[in-house]
Specification:
With 458 residues, the chain is of the alpha+beta class. The protein is built from 15 helices and eleven strands. The protein has a five-stranded antiparallel β-sheet with strand order 2-1-4-3-5.
Length: 458
Amino acid sequence: MSGCTNCSTDANAVGGCQNNGSCGTEDCNKMNTFDWLSHMGIPEVDKFDVVEVKFKGGRKDYFRNTNLLPLTTGDPVVVDVPNGHHIGYVSLQGELVRLQMQKRKVKNDDTITGIYRIATQKDLEKWQEAKNREIPTIYRSKQIIDEIKLAMKLSDVEYQADNSKATFYYSADDRVDFRELIKLLASEFKIRVEMRQISLRQEAGRLGGIGVCGRELCCSTWIHDFKSVTTSAARYQNLSLNPSKLSGQCGRLKCCLNFELDSYLMALKDIPKIEKPLLTEAGPAKLQKTDIFRRLMWFSYNDDNNWHSIDCDRVQLILEQNEKGITPFSLKQDKAFEGEYDQNKTNEDLELLDKKFSQGKRKKKRKPKNRKPNPNNPQQSAGEGGAPPNKPRRNNRNPKRGNKNRNSPENPSQSQEKPGSSDSKVAGNNPRNRRRKPNPNRNKGGQNNPNKGAADDK
């Protein structure tokens, strides 16, 4: 085989990737199927003789292996098509083909054509020459469509392996009269022309791409029949009806909206239907939001911004009370001051954020500066041991009584100073201390007089 450039297979290697259809590179991954029965020992006598063959763009068809060829997943085979032959790759065989035909409602009758042979190197080279004409044909065909002003969009061209026929895939909103276009294309490229209209979803599947989920498009990997998707599927799932978020690369609603729709419909059976506001003494409560899987419903009084969440059982009870003409006190209490008020903390995080941003910024307290300890102050040095030092009292100076002498015994820190120190000189030269002379009879015995010891020595 010439094969797959991404899988690095060549003509001398065994046909196919030998991975049972789980290749994940570019076009190899389009519409593949994993053969989970390949490792099981099924008798060869009962083997199903119809083989699934994949063509360009993920298109698949079924052919009968009348010659009982030893085929492997990924082998190129020459198959019988109307007015010629074509080459495709084996994508599935065995009992899974029977199940796929039942799923796609394909009848196992004489309309299924056969497989001629496994493609040779000469067949693959001729098919490659035909495929090289596809891109120039697309560009020239779009120019012709613009010249004759047809309201259609050409998306892809597929040449047959015998280079005798080309299929043009296009999409259009309305019906298009392309009889003149077929004549121009046939005379331009000297081939038989087949026009095939496809939908926008099929066009996206043929081109391929990556979805917003980060994976390959479902329409190009496994979806072969497209179901209609309506906006009601988004409403059941409580999704915002935003066209830019709900539409896929094809411009239509995403097919994945139908994936979880059944689960939502099953969960909605237990959710009560609210057609009018709930009547309470606190006021009418309107429905704002519903959490289907947690079975919680949020209501607000008189279009207030504060939402109150209650479970579906409580909502059903209030509905039954309103039908009987009974009006409860609130959404969570039937009567006023009935037991303790059980606050639901579902909105606690929002309340904390409101409190955080509603309060102004507090001013930071200034830390007290660490002052250097004075070695002459025993009270401050005692505070270094761990206990904070006592703050010195301020001298409440009375102008009538005058200032007391700083060398008085009331200040023990200064009573132990040496007479020759600079502090004592400053204190003696202070004119405020000269107003009142110290009384020598006050200190009898001279215990607290720092200058007495010096006089005795003399």
